Give the backbone structure.
Amino acid sequence: MDNKDVILIGPPGSGKGTQADLLASTCGLLHLSSGDLFRENVRNGTPLGKLAKDYMDRGEYVPDDVTVAMVVERMQRPDAARGVIFDGFPRTEKQAAALKQALAEHGRGIKRVIVFQVPDREIVTRLSARRVCPKDGATFNLLSKPPKVNNICDNDGAELVQRDDDKPETIERRLEVYHRQTAPLVSYYQAEGLVSRIDGSKRVESVLDDIRSILG
Ligand code: AMP
């Protein structure tokens, strides 16, 4: 069994996407974000995007069967063969079981599950300050990673926007859903001896160092 896949679990805004990008560019793994895949489908107006949008706008999870089908399809493309950093997937035990099976079918397994710990009050501050580029999906933060020019994407000059689900009412809902549905996944993976916890409230570079030393 080739255990090279890594899972990042943590509340929304805990830095999973940022760290997955940095890790992907240095260790050659593919960054697979289920949230990004859903947003791409919403932008392109696909049937999957239309179905997912209502759930996303409410801050709720898209049903497991739909989510699993989308992620498994992505995992089967050639660029995923070198190993994947899963960001935001799995989020339920059903998804975790489906992932285990899909990996096993390719003789693969999970190397490590990194759990990001960040207090809820900090999540609310971070997500309220998050801005995204509607064109290329790049993420900025008015507090910790501001764009070079106020409210403009560094990459393509598009005007940044706030994600609909980063509005205060929806943030509360997403945190509640995370604690109820995803936090229990940690015990699931702990039983398999795969969990390492990190302090996600530290600076981006320190968090990256911590994850690198865990992954070895
Ligand atoms: P994210 O960018 O990871 O915070 O995801 C944004 C939204 O996409 C979530 O609030 C959910 O509505 C949906 N979503 C992303 N990943 C999953 C997943 N693994 N299971 C169910 N819904 C998901």
Remarks:
- The first strand starts at residue 2 and ends at 9.
